Amino acid sequence: MIAGLVHIFSQPFLRYAFFAGTAIALAAGLTGYFVVLRSQVFTGDALSHVAFTGAVAALAAGIDLLFGLYGACIVFAFALAALGRRGQADDTVIGNVFAWMLGLGALFLSVYTSSKSGSNGTTGVNVLFGTIFGLSARQAFTDAAVGLGVCVVIVAIGRPLLFASIDAAVASARRVPVRLLGFIFLGAVGVTAAAATQAVGALLLLGLIAAPAGAAQRLTTRPFGALWLSGGIAVASLWAGLLLAYAVPQMPPSFGIIGVATLIYLVAFALTGPARTAAAAS
Amino acid sequence: MVTAAVVTTSTGLSWNLIGDYRQLLLYPFMVNAYRAGTIIAILAGALGWYMVLRRQSFAGHTLAIVSFPGAAGAILLGLSASAGYFAAAIAAAIVIAAVPRSLGGKARSSESAVIGTVQAFALACGALFVSLYGGFLNGLTNLLFGTFLGIAPAQVLTLLAVAVIALAALAIIARPLFFATVDPDVAEARGVPVRLVSTIFLILLGCAAGEVSQITGALLVFALLVMPAATAQQLTPRPALSFVLTIVAGLLTVWFGLALAYYYPAYPFGFYVTTVGFAGYVAAVGGRTLAGRSRRATLQAVTA
Q1: With bands split at pLDDT 50, 70 and 90, how would you rate the model's confidence at A280?
Q2: Distance from CA of B289 to the nearest CA of A (A)
Q3: What's the CATH number of domain A9-202, 1.10.3720.10, 1.10.3470.10, 3.90.78.10, 1.20.272.10?
């Protein structure tokens, strides 16, 4: 067992995957708690599609993928925050915009794969489903730094953000800057989405955001307990998923990570039962 | 006339749009694509109209996404992809309907977490199946972003049969469903079986999502499921009129999208169909804003 772990960490690509993945998963778990609390899962979904389009657009234009990824996510996150009065946009508007975004993504993907610089479609598929085992040292350090930065921001604004999320009217009466917090928060979600795209892929990052937070909210009613539990579940899912993918080479690592997160959510659901649904949400 | 068109078989649009249209329909694969597209646009328009009204866009999106691992799994097992689309989307509809929803929308946040988790897990399964199948990348992009090529006449027949059954079922529950959507509490008090009607609706939505996925790809179903309905509901508040407009908008979206994809084959069909749909939506929102402004201006002029 220990010999196996030593063997695993002697390989650089696995070290990078664990190093960057831990920071990204913690960031996703912490932001995810507030995403679920504020009923913004659909917004997170839209951001993940924008991450795909941004990354593929950068590839098609021949510039660094990271530039397109972070640029698109942050701009779109602020646009969504500006659209809604309380920093929440209408479902139908989001649906229309992100369907078109995906269409644009399909366009850029075909431009990229048919141009000379893109030899095959692998990179585009990697953006969709993640390449955590393919991170370079530089990417791993960037991702880890970004993930930790998001965690620091969330912890710093945690208390007022919780207040604003639970009762916006009372919070603004108490001079909590509700709107500003909404902006900062969605910006943090955008950055997390961009970082998580590299780990689990644009299509699957919603699982890393929604599943741990949903499980944590079922397991405890204490807000900060649930916040840290959500982060912990996300990190545990990532570790277990990476080990699974290493043990079973046919399995893509993203599937391992999302599979474990879903399993934890199912266990939490089974432990608490459907009766808790109303209590947990009210 | 027909022979002349055959002789001048060229790609690229001319100024004679009707001639272009005839030329396009000389190819059996385009005829099949138009037949399939027309069936799908009608079904998606009818169910999408209710879906937008009921604010279940997120659920519709999830049903479509679940159809992707269904199709990928069916291909992996050597079954028909078409059957996989339907089986997965309908099964997911039953699961979502079974999750208890408390009154007054209090459980909304936990319901979103469920839907988000289901969605991500379904996509992860799809990725697993595709990787087990052996990295057939072109097939993956077709499953996700759609293709209008290679639709067999048998597939068109399947689409037609499912669409006719689903539309007949929708016609039976149409009135109670509308009542339950607009005011669930009063409908319940009047003896409308709200829960049953909602479940049937979700299953029908699963059928529609499974059908649309086969043409637009699992990720782009919103082009036909949400965009036409959202466009029509911008244009008129009257239910019957906006229902008809939804189907018209859906048909136009598919027809234009297919024609563009045929004449400019460099870019994927999914891009054209979402762009046409989105342009329609933006035009409707813009037109409504302008109309509202001019009406307000006339009101001010009258009162001044």
Answers
A1: very low
A2: 15
A3: 1.10.3470.10
Q: Could you count the other beta carbons within 10 Å of the beta carbon of residue A274?
A: 14
Residues B36-81: pLDDT tens digits? 999 999 999 999 999 888 888 778 888 888 888 888 888 888 888 8
CA B153 to the chain's CA centroid: 21
B44 vs A91: CA distance, rounded Å? 18
Q: In this complex, do B128 and A277 lie within 8 Å of one another by their Cβ atoms?
A: no
Comparing CB atoms, the residue among B55, B117, B141 nearest residue A109 is B141
User: Scanning every residue of chain B, which has its alpha carbon at the shortest distance from the alpha carbon of A106?
Assistant: B271
CA-to-CA dists, residue B74 to A118, B10, B150, angstroms: 30, 38, 18
Arithmetic mean of pLDDT, B208-220: 85
| Nearest CB neighbour to B127, from listed A91, A121, A255 | A255
Chain A residues inside the 8 Å CB shell of B246: none
User: What pLDDT was estimated at residue B104?
Assistant: 37
Distance separating alpha carbons of residues A250 and B144, to the nearest angstrom: 21
pLDDT tens, position by position, B251-300: 999 998 888 888 887 788 888 999 999 999 989 888 888 887 777 777 77
Classify residue A180 as exposed, middle or buried by CB count within 10 Å of its CB (0-12, 13-18, 19+).
middle
- Residues A281, B110: C-beta atoms closer than 8 Å: yes
- Residues, chain A: 282
CA A277 from centre of chain = 24
Give the nearest chain B residue to A256 (CA atoms): B124
Of B58, B266, B270, the CB nearest to A103: B270
pTM, rounded to two decimals: 0.80
Q: Do B121 and A281 touch (CB under 8 A)?
A: no
Predicted confidence (pLDDT) per residue in A220-271, tens digit? 888 888 999 999 999 999 999 988 888 888 888 888 899 999 999 989 888 8
Q: Say yes or no for a CB contact (<8 Å) between A211 and B128.
A: no
> Nearest chain B Cα to A125, which residue?
B137
Enter the ipTM. Answer: 0.81
State whether A207 and B112 contact (CB < 8 Å).
no
A173 at the B interface (CB within 8 A)?
no
Mean pLDDT over B155-170 rounds to 91
Topology adopted by domain B32-303? ABC transporter involved in vitamin B12 uptake, BtuC (1.10.3470)
Q: Which of A92, A110, A210 is opposite residue B113, by nearest beta carbon?
A: A210
Residue B107 has pLDDT above 50, yes or no: no
CB A40 within 8 A of CB B116: no
- What are the structural domain ranges in chain A? 9-202
Which residues does chain A have within 8 Å of residue B55's beta carbon, measured at their own beta carbons? 91-92
Establish if A255 touches chain B: CB-CB under 8 angstroms. Answer: yes
- Dihedral class, residue B279 (left if φ above 0, else alpha if ψ from -120 to 50, else beta): alpha
What rounded mean pLDDT belongs to chain B?
A: 81
